[in-house]
Amino acid sequence: MDREQIAREVLASIGGKENVVANDICMTRLRILTRDPSLVDTEKLSSARGVLGFVRRGDNGIEVVFSPGKVEAVHEAIVRLTGMEGDEEAFAEIGANPEPTRIRVHISQNPLFDAARIQSDREAEESKGEESVDDLVSLLGTISDAQTTEDRLDFDDEAPDDSPGAEGRPPSGRVLVINGPNINLLGIREPDIYGADSYRSLLKLCHDAAEEVGFAECTCFQSNHEGDLIDAIQDAYGSYDGIVFNPGAYTHTSIAILDAAKAVGLPMVEVHISKVDEREEFRQVSYIRAACFETITGMGIKGYRKAIHDLAAHLGM
User: Is 240 a catalytic residue?
Assistant: First the structure.
């Protein structure tokens, strides 16, 4: 779809270009400050093509989530349509005290997911009561879920945004969880090695663990592309307090990712779902380890909970 058309749909859903005070981008998010937040049509925004989700920031701010590589093009179109250049300073005050609402995620249908639905309906008619069909649909559904490469999910709609974290302290700090190639296929990919837990289960675990130790925000980012992972690390500088990172196969090959991690200098924990040190010889090399204060392997997705807890302890939370 044409990026300008996407930009027009976004502008229409937030009250038109006249309602835009400032704009900017951050990672995969298009940032917009509105003049009158009551004009924002959230249903229209969440269903706009190309939009993966959105989160409100402060009284007048909103961040619209796109897939990696798309947000820059849409932002350029927003700049042309509004006549306003990106203004990072306009968001500085919000960035210092973001108080985000929970993200609303819009997941586009995936053809593979649709096919699984059709097949499941047929098999359900032929053999009612079989759990295998539902299991298959659930696993294939994670592919559609994984289209949201950056998720800040609310799994407890009743929980207030300012709920206290560990030991009753008010939440503080931001943690970024980065996952490399094929992590989005958890539950489908070699379950004998990586377990049956889905990627969505991993997102929920990270969100819960961050809340347990008192992080104000937990952002999960996943990409199959090396450059996107490097961009995510670089963009974390000045925005996040620490990183939990599973580079996937790039662990064993990417000096560029190591260089990015060293450049930003944020506290980082390396996580692997399987026992990589007991697997193939080529998996014995970890470049990212040189930039991490801890490595966790072989605990399944529970390793992420330990990583988030240990990161919080490292930060003195």
Answer: no
